[in-house]
Design brief:
The chain folds into two domains: 13-123, Leucine Aminopeptidase, subunit E, domain 1; 138-453, Aminopeptidase (3-Layer(aba) Sandwich), CATH 3.40.630.10. It contains 16 helices and 19 strands. It has helices spanning 23-28, 32-40, 66-69, 75-80, 96-109, 134-152, 160-174, 185-188, 192-198, 238-241, 249-263, 309-321, 336-342, 354-367, 401-410, 443-453; strands at residues 13-18, 50-52, 58-62, 86-91, 124-126, 177-182, 206-212, 218-223, 225-229, 269-279, 291-293, 299-301, 327-332, 347-351, 371-374, 391-392, 418-422, 426-427, 437-438. Strands 6, 7, 8, 9, 10, 13, 14, 15 and 17 form a nine-stranded mixed beta sheet that branches. Helix 11 packs across helix 16. It is elongated, with a radius of gyration of 24 Å. This is Leucyl aminopeptidase.
């Protein structure tokens, strides 16, 4: 799905963006019939209100109050879906950064997942507002659409081969290079934990390696690509398995971010690594109490086969680190503990690098893409050391589950600055510009922060 701004024509309507405090004054300057129309329809400028004015050439959208806007984001999108069919041009004095967010929200509101069923399209289309970077906004929206569609697609149609094809399509679009290591070749290439997790599935495990750009600092994105997670021999109960098509949300997010980076021609050397597997049950599935030897040489005691994401990421991170990039970022739907800590709307992340965190926090605030820093709390290292192996993939006790998972991953990165995102990747109920289903988290903030992070 391509999310793009509309082309203006003679029928393009002006849509006035009115805060609650500005609505009475604006109303008083209109003709009597317009005033009566506004009063008859109860338009006050509240968030979500939209009204086509008499004559059909103008419309108004409510922008609420400062306090009401603080309770959400993409406020224009909340009303745009209520407008009748046509193209619209925003009339507003919003600062350029806020206008860009609202224009992006309008584009994102046009997203529909329609692979299996026709969906009613959004009929109100936006002309790119003056003062924004329209091409960049479209690139961000299209990257987000890619992420959403990959997550929304069920595992029957989004297994490891399908995820590989999505990466190949992206590589073709941007003239990137891609190589894939599949099946038993993972063992000969010393990627044993990716192989162990994925070997029980009919569709072979693989490591996808996409590269783009030949100058500038090196950025490596690592995305968890568990296309479906049964839990393995530690089988999940049915209620916990229901959303496991989204367990490749990390890979979907890094592919969406990669599109944004390549489409905006960021002057870097980009690498995207995705361990794509299914965590399935069969006679050759890896078992509780198995001890695996990772690519890095660290041994890992498997105390829960449902903590498989950190295993495939560990080999991938060690592989990424060997190239000594300037920054490694991993994204994964890794732990339920992160959801308990911050809920579904925040993207928690870990880093030891204060300048990276500062850049990310600033970017999150200006891109309507909230993130929350979590601690790499070193005293908890003892919790991931089982005694008979170097590491434990599932420490007992239940405390600090997201932190111990992040500490596990940190053991596999030595040479590069590192950021790890423990995302949810799912919108549990519809919100403005975010329908229920797959969603990107942290990617817009990262795109905005990368120039500072990489000192471009």
């Amino acid at each position: 799905m391509t999310l793009s701004f509309a082309t203006p024509d003679d029928a393009t309507r002006s849509v006035h963006l009115l805060a609650e405090s500005a609505t009475p004054d604006w109303r008083s300057r209109q003709a009597q019939d317009v005033q009566a129309w506004i009063d008859a329809h109860g338009f006050t400028g509240a968030i979500g209100q939209a009204l086509l004015l008499p004559g059909g050439r103008d419309a108004v959208i409510g922008y609420g109050s400062e306090s009401s806007r603080a309770r959400g984001r993409f406020h224009v999108a909340a009303a745009a879906a209520k407008l009748p069919k046509g193209t619209y041009r925003l009339v507003t004095d919003l600062p350029a950064d806020q206008l860009q967010i609202e224009a992006l929200g309008w584009l994102l509101a046009t997203y529909r997942f329609d692979r299996y069923k026709d969906q009613s399209p959004m009929v109100a289309l936006l002309v790119a507002p003056d003062g924004i970077d329209a091409a960049r906004t479209e690139a961000i929206a299209q990257g987000e659409a890619l992420t959403r569609t990959l997550i929304n697609t069920p595992a029957a149609d989004m297994g490891p081969p399908d995820l590989e094809q999505a990466a190949r399509d992206l590589a073709t679009q941007h003239r990137a290079t891609i190589t894939v290591t599949t099946g038993d070749d993972l063992l000969t290439q010393n990627l044993p934990m990716i192989h162990a997790v994925g070997r029980a599935a009919d569709r072979a495990p693989r490591l996808i390696d996409l590269t783009w750009g030949d100058t500038g600092p090196k950025l490596t994105l690592v995305g968890k690509g568990v296309c479906f997670d049964t839990g393995g021999l530690n089988l999940k109960p049915g209620a916990s398995m229901g959303l496991m098509k989204k367990d490749m949300g990390g890979s979907a997010s890094v592919l969406g971010l990669a599109h944004m980076i390549m489409a905006t021609d960021l002057p870097i050397q980009l690498r995207v690594l995705i361990p794509a597997v299914e965590n399935s049950v069969s006679g050759n599935a890896f078992r509780p109490q198995d001890i695996l030897t990772s690519r890095k040489g660290l041994t890992v005691e498997v105390n829960n086969t449902d903590a498989e994401g950190r295993l495939v990421l560990a080999d991938t991170l060690a592989f990424a680190d060997e190239d000594t990039p300037d920054l490694i970022i991993s994204m994964a739907t890794l732990t339920g503990a992160a959801r308990v800590a911050v809920g579904p709307d925040l993207a928690p992340y870990y880093t030891d690098e204060a300048p990276l965190s500062a850049a990310l926090e600033n970017a999150a605030a200006t891109t309507a893409d909230p993130v929350w820093r979590m601690p790499f709390h070193t005293p908890y290292e003892a919790l991931i050391e089982p005694g008979i192996a170097d590491l434990d993939n599932a420490p007992k006790g239940g405390f600090a589950g997201s932190i111990t998972a992040a500490l596990f991953l940190r053991r596999f990165v030595d040479s590069a600055p590192y950021i790890h995102f423990d995302i949810y990747g799912w919108q549990p109920s519809s919100a403005p510009a975010r329908p229920k289903g797959g969603v990107g988290q942290g990617t817009r903030a990262l795109l905005d922060a990368l120039p500072k992070m990489l000192k471009l």
